[in-house]
Design a protein that fits this description.
The complex is a heterodimer. Chain A is mainly α. Chain A has 12 helices and 2 strands. The chains are: A mainly alpha, B alpha+beta.
């Protein structure tokens, strides 16, 4: 049994709280106008986010003190439950449609997104599977196939909702974990080639698809349709300049950028706090990535290492996709910025994941 | 460091570095968007946020050569609506419709339009009273903007030349259209920043882009001369009720148009009330017709320049008709003028005499001069819709065509061509391009942006020939058919013209365009005046009878208005019935009533004041008046005043 250490990684904790504080301020700033217009209460979203943060922090500290081996024990059960939820969510009457995707189960504030849970469940399961079968991972049939199989099963089900953003993050996280576990580069190259061939096939069979994907390169081609959000986002970021317009001074939050407190909060942040503010946030995430990898390197066993890398990969990939979308590097997928975007599910789950990571850090030799 | 698996450790490090790299790329992208694309995006965003309220520029004024305003602007309130700020559309529509007199439904459409700002067409350029009524309604989202409306202070005056503007102050006809670009100026705007719901964002300063006012257009027109011309045409209109009239006054030494008018006229403010033909046709430059005898000046000029005739010494016998190529061409005077010098041929406007001149010139020479004098082509005056006229094709000119052309029939010319040509004939021989716009002036700086100077097209005849023509034409007025254009002291020269109108290829009976073209003073011409009257009623249709007196009145008053000194050494007038001889007004100041009784037999007297002795008289002594004119005398009792003084 690994030895127990009293203190979790302090840097990780500080980074997390800094991100959380920045997020709360930005959610208020970005949402105040919208909230005032819609609910006659400029603090409407900020208050809720504060509540979610409180719940999340409590959950984080609780989970921080739960030994991470516990999740290995329940990994199978958790992922089975998640699969069941993914099936249930597809059934009209049980699953609710929001923004065109049937992704939600539950009523009102007590709704959950099974795909979000699946992201975490998949990390716990793959950490267990890969640590137990690490030697076989170099084998295509015995190692790679089963792990990728379960990932793509989950991805397929998520895409039935559809929820491309969450699905992509889950696949990305899983691929990173499988890579870390030691899968052959040749296999990745082969699979990558297969992916390219499949992609090319899809494009040939229906050329309009390429346009949908590349439309982000020139959003002005369809400024009121597919390019709308990205144009509004760039109109926020561009005028920000080096120092930004000042906290609270965003123009684009005045109904130009839809729901500025959610997926596009980074645009408002870059508008109000400029390149300095944007870079600061990216730096915090880079620090978080660094601490995560350090924790993985110092983890007492492969399971802890994989768990840590899975969590940190999930956060990093989500940041990359989100900021990539907001700055016009990628097509719009609909993914939240961890710790900053408004949203109860996203925030509490992120904090819970950090709780797991903190627990690993307790056992980790840093 | 308990994970000892080398691959895992290596790949963890690689992952960290790749992750850092991706974060770095994203940060570079962020910087690229904020710095490299920053300005473009900021401009785009400002366009997105801003709402423009247009500011109309002030249209340039049109003024005469002395700065008298002929076309100006009056402020005219216009109602605008910002639909997003309207609180109660139904009620607003109802109240607005009631004040502006249009349907509620239409008002509601305006108010609910999905536009940031809507102009109510029914509320355009309304009166200030109406605007106040709208203001008093105190409706949210309803604004009164100040538009300007074209204003022509003189009404009908010069209307064909000035033209008028449409509802957007755009020039539609006349100079307003010809110089529209210069007069128009550039639109300005106030940008205010609004959120996506159209409400104003107060913390952003408005951007104001000032409109650039249009340039003022200064004309060659002299409003004093124009006023005289308009007055004379109005008088003639009342007297003859003609189908139409044309008058042009030009400076023969430059081509500057001093006055131009025509009838039927119209008021630019109410142009809709007349037939579009009336305002679309500026007759002095548009119409083409047979000039009649005024054209003989051209034949005369050609013959003199070519040395074909000696006015004083060559003689011509007019039997009343002349046979040319089998056709008989008659003189206007039955029985003919008998034996005359060529000067008398000109004075009498004798057709056979001009036929002879034409024949001596030959068709090539005569037509060369006709073309050199500018006929058959546009003069190039800066007015719209100028006509070109029609000349015989030289190949088809036989003896008959040559003969009729020589006295002004079978050719078709415009009034402005005649004015330009006659000016060339009497100014020393230079043909000028007539023009009406003198300068474009920036109203703010007073800087002259464009200044036109006279354009001499060509030298047509010599100074000597020109001098002979002046003498001949002065004698036409003093001793010949143009007698009624005579103005004491101003040495008016000129030529009558009477042309039958053509309809469906045939000459009309008893329907003429009677014209007169005059110039003065003959020693140094300062003014050329052309008047044509189309089908005058209740009179003999002769240019000498109808048009010559109009030209005479215009000429006399205009020369005085222009400050041209009367001349000595004029050709004295030969009086013919029914011409009225002129009487010099005697000095009567100081005379008593009884003394006056013996004096006046042929002047009417109007008296005013009480008393016995004349203290003042108008006109003053020395002025020449027509027989039967009126003289005003003011009386006072001089002796009584003196008595009172003695008492004191």
């Amino acid at each position: 049994m690994p030895t127990k250490k009293a203190t979790p990684d302090l840097i990780l904790l500080i980074v997390t709280f800094t991100l959380l504080a920045t997020g709360l301020i930005m959610v208020y700033s970005a949402s105040a106008i919208w909230a005032d217009y819609k609910f006659d209460d400029s603090f409407y979203f900020a208050k809720r986010q504060m509540l979610f943060a409180g719940v999340g922090i409590v959950a984080m500290f609780f989970i921080m003190n739960v030994d991470y081996w516990t999740w290995r024990t329940f990994a199978k059960m958790i992922i089975i439950i998640c699969f069941v939820l993914l099936v249930l969510v597809l059934i009209p009457g049980i699953g609710n449609v929001r923004n065109g995707s049937r992704s939600w189960i539950g009523v009102g504030a007590f709704s959950i997104q099974p795909s979000e849970f699946m992201k975490l469940a998949m990390i716990a399961f793959l950490a267990k599977f890969l640590s137990e079968n690490q030697k076989k991972i170099t084998s295509f049939r015995k190692g790679l196939m089963p792990s990728l199989g379960i990932v793509f099963l989950a991805f397929g089900m998520i895409m039935l909702q559809p929820d491309l953003g969450t699905g992509t993050v889950m696949v990305g996280t899983s691929v990173v974990m499988i890579f870390i576990a030691g899968a052959r580069i040749g296999h990745f190259v082969g699979l990558g080639m297969l992916g390219v061939i499949g992609f090319v096939g899809l494009v040939i069979s229906a050329p309009y698809r390429i346009k949908r994907i590349t439309s982000f390169l020139d959003p002005w081609e369809d400024p009121l349709g597919s390019g709308f959000q990205i144009i509004q986002s760039l109109y926020a970021i561009g005028p920000g300049g080096l120092f930004g317009l000042g906290l609270g001074q965003s123009r684009q939050k005045f109904f130009y950028l839809p729901e500025p407190q959610t997926d596009f909060i980074f645009a408002i942040l870059a508008e109000e706090l400029g390149f300095i503010g944007g870079s600061f946030v990216l730096l915090l995430f880079a620090l978080l990535l660094w601490r995560g990898i350090r924790i993985a390197l110092g983890a007492p066993d492969l399971y802890g290492s994989f768990l840590a890398v899975g969590i940190v990969a999930m956060v990093a990939i989500q940041v990359m996709i989100n900021v990539g979308v907001v700055t016009g590097l990628m097509p719009v997928t609909g993914i939240t910025l961890p710790f900053l975007s408004y949203g109860g599910s996203s925030l509490t789950l992120m904090l819970m994941a950090i709780g797991v990571l903190l627990n690993v850090s307790k056992h980790s030799k840093l | 460091m308990r994970v000892s698996n080398v691959t895992v450790r290596k790949r963890l490090t690689i992952s960290l570095l790749v992750g850092f790299l991706i974060f770095f790329i994203i940060d570079v992208r962020l910087g690229y968007v904020q710095f490299a694309l920053g300005n473009i995006l900021t401009d785009g965003a400002k366009d997105l946020w801003s709402r423009n309220i247009p500011f109309e520029p002030e249209r340039g004024e049109i003024v005469d050569r002395n700065g008298v305003a002929l076309a100006t602007n009056k402020s005219a309130p216009t109602v605008y609506v910002v639909p997003r700020q309207v609180k109660d559309p139904a009620k607003t529509a109802e109240q607005l419709a009631a004040v502006l007199n249009f349907s509620k439904e239409k008002a509601y459409q305006y108010i609910t339009k999905s536009a940031s700002i809507v102009r109510i067409n029914e509320g355009r350029k309304i009166t200030h009273e109406k605007a106040n009524e709208v203001r008093d309604l105190n409706l949210a989202g309803v604004y009164i903007g100040e538009d300007s409306k074209r204003h022509y202070p003189f009404g009908n005056y010069l209307s064909h030349v000035l033209g008028f503007t449409g509802s957007d102050n755009q020039g539609l006809t006349g100079l307003e259209a010809y110089y529209d670009k210069d007069l128009m100026g550039e639109e300005g705007s106030v940008k205010f920043y609004a959120n996506a719901k159209g409400q104003r964002m107060n913390d952003m300063a408005d951007d104001y882009e000032a409109p650039v006012d249009g340039l003022d257009l200064k004309l060659t027109i002299d409003s004093k001369v124009q006023t005289i011309v308009e007055r004379e045409l109005d008088n003639a209109q009342a007297q003859y009720n003609p189908d139409g009239m044309i008058a042009i006054a030009m400076d023969p030494n430059t081509g500057e148009i001093l006055a131009m008018s025509s009838r039927p006229g119209f008021d630019p403010a109410q142009f809709q009330e007349v037939n579009p033909e009336v305002y679309n046709r500026n007759l002095p430059v548009w119409s083409t017709y047979e000039p009649g005898s005024t054209f003989k000046v051209i034949t005369l000029a050609a013959a003199l320049e070519e040395g074909k005739v000696d006015l004083e010494n060559d003689h011509f016998h007019d039997s009343g008709s002349v046979k040319v190529g089998g056709a008989t061409l008659r003189c206007w005077k039955r029985g003919g003028h008998g034996s005359q010098t060529y000067l008398e041929v000109v004075q009498n406007s004798c057709n056979p005499g001009f036929v002879q001149l034409g024949e001596s010139l030959g068709k090539d020479t005569l037509f060369k001069y006709i073309k050199d004098f500018g006929f058959g082509q546009k003069t190039g005056i800066d007015l719209q819709g100028e006509g070109k006229g029609i000349l015989f094709n030289l190949d088809r000119v036989g003896p008959v065509e040559l003969a009729t052309t020589a006295f002004g029939q079978g050719v078709s010319v415009t009034p402005i061509q005649q004015v330009a040509a006659i000016s060339a004939a009497i100014n020393g021989g230079t043909l000028y391009t007539p023009y009406i716009a003198k300068e474009l002036v920036d109203p703010r700086t007073g800087e002259v942006v464009m200044k036109k100077s006279p354009v001499a097209k060509r030298k047509v005849i010599s100074e000597e020939t020109s001098e002979k023509i002046r003498y001949a034409l002065e004698s036409v007025v003093a001793q010949g058919s143009g007698g009624r254009a005579f103005v004491e002291g101003y040495r008016v020269g000129g030529k009558t013209g009477t042309a039958q109108k053509v309809k469906d290829g045939r000459y009309m009976e008893n329907n003429h365009i009677v014209s007169f073209i005059g110039f003065a003073p003959a020693d140094d011409p300062q003014l050329v005046v052309y008047v044509a009257v189309d089908n005058p009623k209740g009179t003999t249709q002769f240019g000498g009878v109808v048009s010559a007196p109009i030209v005479g009145s215009i000429m006399g008053d205009s020369l005085r208005a222009l400050g041209v000194e009367p001349r000595k050494g004029q050709l004295e007038k030969e009086y013919k019935w029914p011409d009225v001889p002129m009487i010099e007004v005697p000095d009567v100041v100081g005379m008593t009533k009884t003394e006056l009784g013996d004096l006046f037999v042929n002047l009417k007297i109007e008296t005013s004041g009480e008393g016995n002795v004349v203290v003042k008289q108008t006109p003053e002594a020395g002025v020449k008046l027509k027989e039967g004119s009126t003289i005003r005398l003011y009386f006072d009792n001089v002796e009584q005043k003196e008595d009172k003084k003695e008492e004191e």
